[in-house]
């Protein structure tokens, strides 16, 4: 498989920019990365992105990435010790998208008057983020289900970030995992992520009878309504 030239150049450029911001200046052997090394690393990231984007199979392999880039496994291991490290590099790029897509909006306190609109906007933006990054997130979740500790850690941190912001939308500070507020935030996040995951499951149309197959518009509207009800309920309780 060959990457389209313009697409590959764009992915390489993004990966190079990200590496420069993160000050990735050495490979795993401690050798300083020159321009050529930075480009090789960026090409590995671009190839992995392309492979994941084009396949619904979450079981990606480093050897497949190496073949696309046209390098040997020894060379690839100079930049990424294993598949987990490579996937984490891709997830870092995706989470930059998350900040713009929905984290910034969730960080701003939603007024009671605009709560329904804000809930709808958040759920829609979250679902659109999932749609853009569905295969990568399915890879993360697949590896987490295989008890990959790095993927579990990433998944938990992503959930925790949203959960903490949801508790703030309930007009309270996080006060422990056993609190009703924290429980509500966790339940809401699980539902929102699950809806987005289901909507981006390519096997669903074949697996589910048409009469029960979810319609994206209805699912997102229903989830927005549930989020609004959950937030209003907790705001009333915390104010009382």
Automatic annotation (TrEMBL):
MF (Gene Ontology): DNA-binding transcription factor activity; transcription cis-regulatory region binding
SUPFAM superfamilies noted in UniProt: Homeodomain-like
Keywords: DNA-binding, Transcription, Transcription regulation
Record organism: Pontixanthobacter aquaemixtae
Residue spans binding DNA: 61-80
HTH tetR-type domain residues: 38-98
Official protein name in the record: TetR/AcrR family transcriptional regulator
PANTHER family registered for this protein in UniProt: HTH-TYPE TRANSCRIPTIONAL REGULATOR BETI, HTH-TYPE TRANSCRIPTIONAL REGULATOR RUTR
């Amino acid at each position: 498989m060959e990457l389209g030239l313009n697409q590959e150049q764009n992915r390489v450029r993004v990966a190079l920019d990200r590496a420069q911001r993160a000050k990735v200046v050495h490979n795993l052997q401690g050798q300083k990365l020159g321009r050529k090394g930075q480009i090789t690393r960026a090409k590995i990231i671009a190839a992995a992105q392309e492979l994941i984007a084009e396949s619904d199979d979450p079981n990606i392999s480093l050897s497949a990435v190496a073949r696309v880039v046209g390098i040997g496994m020894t060379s690839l291991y100079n930049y990424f010790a294993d598949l987990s490290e490579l996937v984490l590099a891709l997830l870092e790029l995706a989470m930059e998208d998350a900040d713009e897509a929905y984290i910034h909006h969730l960080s701003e306190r939603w007024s009671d008057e605009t709560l329904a609109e804000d809930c709808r906007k958040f759920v829609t933006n979250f679902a659109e983020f999932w749609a853009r990054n569905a295969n990568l997130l399915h890879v993360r979740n697949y590896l987490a289900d295989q008890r990959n500790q790095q993927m579990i850690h990433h998944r938990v941190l992503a959930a925790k970030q949203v959960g903490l912001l949801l508790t703030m939308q309930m007009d309270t500070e996080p006060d422990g995992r056993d609190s009703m507020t924290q429980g509500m935030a966790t339940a809401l996040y699980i539902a929102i992520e699950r809806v987005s995951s289901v909507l981006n499951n390519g096997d669903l149309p074949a697996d589910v009878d048409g009469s029960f197959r979810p319609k994206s518009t209805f699912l997102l509207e229903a989830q927005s309504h549930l989020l609004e009800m959950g937030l209003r309920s907790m705001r009333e309780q915390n104010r009382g």
